[in-house]
Amino acid sequence: MLFYDPRFLEHVSSPMHVERPERLEAIVDRLRQEDLFRDVHAPSPEAVTELRRVHRAAFLEYFEHLSEGVLDPETAVHPETWGIALLAAGAVIQATRDSVAQGAPAVALVRPPGHHAGPDYGGGFCYLNNVAAAAADQVAQGRRVAILDFDAHHGNGTSEIFEDEAAVLYISTHQFGIYPGTGAAEDVGKGEGRGFNVNIPFTAGCGDESFRLAFDQIVAPVVREYKPDLVLVSLGIDAHYRDPLTGLSLSSPGYVDLMTRSAELAHELCGDRFVVALEGGYHLQALSEVYAGVVARMNRRRVDLELTQLLDAKGKGRPAIESTKRAHKEFWNLR
Ligand SMILES: [Zn+2]
């Protein structure tokens, strides 16, 4: 199942902004070329009730009535922004509900992205937290949710929204030290949420082998021990070596492999209740071929990937992985 609406292309924060409509257009064009743009569902914008579970009423009120302004210097608001952001959140909420109901994977092709939007703030190109709203909607039905955030940036918004919540497990791989500056290994959550916030703070250069090790040594064992009812993925393609914004070095096959393993984990533990939502990623070919690869795998197919350089074969991220294991040894059975 795909969730998409052409109105997502009408969001333009500012001219020349890197988070531009062409990102999503490139993904849809490639899916069409591969005959993978099938089973496409239109989202409903009725997400306001669910958004109140993750954002404060005053923030929603402010954003809805702002019309023209900024949430931060790179996150501008125009009259249409609220409606499109609401539709993006609605798409991820609906994708998640349908995935849970049908026991089938879903991909939400949305913009604007969401993982930097917190309880009472937007920023970092994000307005409303799409994935957090979908997770909170499921928690309200009594379900336990694992969120895997493979964007190159730490999902500070998602992390803060669920920092004291045990019904949501948040695991993030990111380049540490770049925007937004959060996401240290030692930040394990607060109160009831201690142990349910897992940060893997990679340094520049980390790529395929580091992500493979992080998945085998942290992501898979923690998620297996947690036993979620569903898995949500915040999938940004800005950890790709061609991405202009960050210094991580995943290849396209590295990304597809990471997502294949994640889907297999959701198959094993959650009966294929598995939802992928687009976050960042600013290189058009990297974005489009990785998403085509991910959707192809869901359809038991493969596509040709061209960006295949292996820049991290040795696992430069081992020290980060060890720091995460140290920070979480009191919470999880980690080798
Ligand atoms: Zn990002």
List keywords for this structure.
binds zinc ion; alpha/beta; 335 residues; two-stranded antiparallel ribbon; globular
SSE map:
Elements: E1 2-3, H1 21-33, E2 40-41, H2 48-51, H3 57-66, E3 69-72, E4 75-77, H4 81-102, E5 106-108, H5 130-139, E6 145-149, H6 156-161, E7 168-175, E8 197-202, H7 208-226, E9 230-235, H8 252-270, E10 274-278, H9 284-298, H10 318-327
Parallel strand pairs: 1-2, 1-5, 5-10, 6-7, 6-9, 7-8, 9-10
Antiparallel strand pairs: 3-4
Helix pairs in contact: 1-9, 4-5, 7-8, 7-10, 8-9
Residues 151-153, 236, 238, 279-280 line the site of zinc ion.
What does this structure look like?
The chain is an alpha/beta fold. It is 38% helix and 13% strand. The strands form two sheets. An eight-stranded parallel sheet has the order 2-1-5-10-9-6-7-8, with helices on both faces. Strands 3-4 form a two-stranded antiparallel ribbon. Helix 4 packs across helix 5 (130-139), helix 7 (208-226) packs parallel to helix 8 (252-270) and helix 7 (208-226) runs parallel beside helix 10. The termini are far apart. The protein binds zinc ion. Zinc ion (ZN) is lined by residues 151-153, 236, 238, 279-280.
Structural class: alpha/beta
How big is the Rg?
Answer: 18 Å
User: Which spans of ≥5 residues are poorly predicted at pLDDT below 50?
Assistant: none
Helix and strand pattern: EHEHHEEHEHEHEEHEHEHH
Principal-axis shape equals globular
> How would you write the strand order of the largest sheet?
2-1-5-10-9-6-7-8
Share in helix = 25-40%
Q: What bound compounds does this protein have?
A: zinc ion
Number of helices: 10
Give the averaged pLDDT, no decimals: 97
Q: How many beta strands in the DSSP annotation?
A: 10
Task: Tell me the strand percentage band.
Answer: 5-15%
What can be said about the biggest beta sheet? 8 strands, parallel
The end-to-end distance, rounded to whole angstroms, is 36 Å
